[in-house]
Specification:
This is Ig-like domain-containing protein. This protein is of the alpha+beta class. The chain has 3 domains: about 80 residues, Immunoglobulin-like (Sandwich); about 80 residues, Immunoglobulins (Immunoglobulin-like); about 60 residues. The protein is about 20% helix and about 35% strand. The chain contains 2 helices and 19 strands. The chain has a 5-stranded mixed β-sheet with strand order 2-9-8-4-5, with no helix packed on it. Strands 13, 14, 16, 17 and 18 form a 5-stranded antiparallel β-sheet that branches. Helix 1 runs antiparallel to helix 2.
């Protein structure tokens, strides 16, 4: 099953450590854990499941990014261990900004900085930041600093610079000091399976649609968004 295992012995690191990237960026996805065989799997924005990276060097998948590399990635060991899933978004507007935000969940109480960047200019000023489509800060320094992250800070973030907006990225907050009881783990498993079944039914409906143009394209994009939310919802259930 395609679930992020927050207690897994496998992990995935992304370098540079951010969700959004420009086209032609060099991005490395490295699988870590006490295993000898690895593969990086991807669920793409167009609804396809890729069983391996195709550009693996040892435990590292090296990508020279293009728009088609947008997707949800995770590591799988030869013995079947899964890492948590991460989102990678590739900016297809060469003149537009990207939001620089962490790939993995931020621990409650920790500090985090979000920034806005152009391909030709890394440090920007007079940037607007949005949380769940609500303007939260116009910072002349070009950074959004949260000194002590709380669960209320979780959500979708994006930035705007000179009238151009970045894509939005989800920032998860990991709550500490709670242990997952067997009951909640079972609830999480049932919810996760149910959501995956719904996703597959929606995918089947898209594939069976007689309209092959606009409806199909929008449907696949909605599926990708739904899958992303499934990943985050399931992770939150396991952590709670």
């Amino acid at each position: 099953m395609l679930f992020p295992d927050v207690h897994s012995a496998a992990s995935l690191t992304v370098s540079p450590d951010r969700v959004q990237h420009f086209t032609s960026d060099s991005v490395s996805l490295t699988c870590e854990g006490n295993f000898t065989e690895w593969r990086v799997r991807k669920f793409s924005e167009d609804g396809r499941l890729y069983s391996d990276c195709g550009r693996m060097t040892g435990s590292t998948c090296n990508i020279n990014t293009s728009e088609s590399d947008t997707g949800v990635y995770w590591c799988e060991s030869g013995s079947g261990e899964f890492s948590s899933a991460v989102n990678i978004t590739v900016q297809n507007d060469g003149n537009g900004p990207i939001l620089v935000s962490p790939v993995h969940p931020v621990t409650e109480g920790a500090s985090v900085s979000l920034s806005c960047s152009l391909k030709t200019q890394k440090i920007l000023s007079n940037v607007f930041f949005y949380h769940n489509d609500k303007l939260i800060q116009n910072d002349p320094r070009g950074e959004l600093n949260i000194s002590a992250v709380s669960k209320s800070d979780e959500g979708f973030y994006k930035c705007q610079y000179s009238g151009r907006e970045s894509a939005q990225s989800w920032m998860s907050v990991k709550v500490t000091g709670r242990s997952s009881s067997p009951v909640w783990l079972m609830v999480g498993l049932v919810c996760g399976v149910s959501l995956i079944i719904i996703l597959l039914l929606l995918l089947y409906r898209c594939r069976q649609s007689k309209c092959k143009s606009l409806f199909f394209s929008c449907c696949i994009r909605e599926l990708f968004t739904t899958y992303t939310l499934i990943i985050h919802t399931y992770t939150c259930i396991l952590i709670s």
